[in-house]
Amino acid sequence: MPILLTRIDDRLIHGQVVVGWTQALKANHIVVIDDDIAVNELQKFLFRMATPTDIKLSILTIREAAGIIKKRGFDDGLTILLLRSPENAYKMIKFGGKVSEINIGGMHFGEGKIQIFDAVYVDEKDVEYINLIKNEGVVLEARMVPTDQKKDVIKVIEEKIKKKETK
């Protein structure tokens, strides 16, 4: 089985991923895809500590992960890919790491961001990258946990932006 889930969540590894997603999907491999974390020994140590011992953890740069995806190198496991931002997800796709669907789980509030779902806030840059991802033929959906109903990210963004423009 190839990749089970590709998720954008700025927290990366946390309870919803470790307990909710890995158990529901019966995943045995989590891949954190982040250029900064891949070279930060303290961050890598902390993520290893937060990952159950029965789950394999890989921490890769965006380019490394894309190369493995392109060669179908994750097909031998039950893998969840985690990325911090829409920008990183788009870079992965452009480097050859094609995926068919991306789940958006958590993007926290910041200056200039609007809320599109519980715990999901976007700014103009995020929206730009989300649209670029959509243009690559990737379906974008939002769910915090596997039992939540899938929500259409593009539709909600378009509605929120229209609403903001009419104010």
Give a topology summary:
Blueprint: E1 3-9, H1 15-25, E2 29-33, H2 35-38, H3 41-50, E3 56-60, H4 62-70, E4 79-83, H5 86-94, E5 101-106, E6 114-117, E7 120-122, H6 124-135, E8 139-142, E9 151-152, H7 153-166
Parallel strand pairs: 1-4, 1-5, 2-3, 2-4, 5-8
Antiparallel strand pairs: 6-7, 8-9
Helix pairs in contact: 4-5, 5-6
What are its keywords?
single chain, 167 residues, alpha/beta, Fructose Permease, seven-stranded mixed β-sheet, 7 helices, 25% strand, globular
Overview of this structure, please?
Helices cover 41% and strands 25% of the residues. It has 167 residues and is an alpha/beta fold. The protein has one domain: Fructose Permease (3-Layer(aba) Sandwich). A seven-stranded mixed beta sheet has the order 3-2-4-1-5-8-9, with helices on both faces. The protein has a two-stranded antiparallel ribbon with strand order 6-7. Strand 8 (139-142) and strand 9 form a beta hairpin. Helix 4 (62-70) crosses helix 5 and helix 5 packs parallel to helix 6. The radius of gyration is 15 Å and the shape is globular. The N and C termini lie far apart (47 Å).
Query: Strand portion, in percent?
Result: 15-25%
Radius of gyration: 15 Å
Sheet with the most strands: spatial strand order: 3-2-4-1-5-8-9
CATH topology: Fructose Permease
- Given as residue ranges, the uncertain stretches (5+ residues, pLDDT < 50) are none
Q: On the 0-100 scale, what is the average pLDDT?
A: 94
Q: Largest beta sheet, briefly?
A: 7 strands, mixed
Give the H and E element order: EHEHHEHEHEEEHEEH
Return the CATH architecture: 3-Layer(aba) Sandwich
Count of helical stretches: 7
- How many individual β-strands? 9
Number of structural units classed as domains: 1
Instruction: Compute the separation of the termini in Å.
Output: 47 Å
